[in-house]
Amino acid sequence: MMKIMKEKLNNQPFLIAVHRGSSMGNIIENTIPAFYAAVQSHADILEIDIIRSIDGDFYVFHDGNEKRLLGQDHNIKTMSSNEIDSLCYRNNNGSVVSYKVDKLENVLNTFRGDILLNIDRSWEYWDTLLPFLDQFHMEEQILLKSPVQNSYLDLLNAHPVKYAYMPIVIEPAEIERVEAYENINLIGMEIIAVSQESPFFQNETIQMIKEKDLLIWINAIKLDDDHFLFADYDDDASIIKGPECGWKKIIEKGADMIQTDWPSLLNNYREKIKSTR
């Protein structure tokens, strides 16, 4: 396990991973200000989405949100660095602001220290991203995830710097596929359970992972009405009905890390748990 992560888990019942940083008003998701806000909201892990321009530069952005955030009809991954650098964000009120899309290098340099960085949606770029990351010497902070696909795992397995890795697993068979790679720094699993009948909602499956000395990452984020990442236990249920209808169940299932859009509220609940122990 990463030293920073181990120290944090020694002091907390679980870690809080903040989805795209904390955005509201004039502070926009997946930007340095949003990550500052997440840190101030007691984040332990910043979840950061990555794209690569057609000329090879890395930016922090979740593609598919171009119309909403940039007023663009084209996917940002089809743009050059000059084109991306010319764009201005729309804030949460839909107003054009002067803030530009952040380059990954600026985010890494800004948050060098003791905050953990989950660089997400980066797997299709690992051929050039992994060497790019090496120059920052931040392997104690960086956590990578990906779907279980051999092309991604082959790159990770062959890369000399062993970044911490957690596969995104939906079926138990995927665990064995990952474990077949001997040179991957496997520290845990992000488990997806679309319903209470899903394999990774079952206590015995979760316990089996923990017995391998691996951590469990569970998503409490609520993307929309149709997508369920951990049955119907999520941020919405936790806020509207009460933590016992969401976060409490996720914690009882054994989550070491919970991804959320509401870090301050989840931290309030975490502090309440700590005060009763």
From TrEMBL:
Residues of the DUF4996 domain: 165-269
GO terms classed as biological process: lipid metabolic process
InterPro entries, per the entry: DUF4996, GP_PDE_dom, PLC-like_Pdiesterase_TIM-brl
GP-PDE domain mapped to chain residues: 19-111
Listed SUPFAM superfamilies: PLC-like phosphodiesterases
Superkingdom classification of source: Bacteria
GO molecular function: phosphoric diester hydrolase activity
Protein's UniProt name: Glycerophosphodiester phosphodiesterase family protein
Organism: Cytobacillus dafuensis (Bacillus dafuensis)
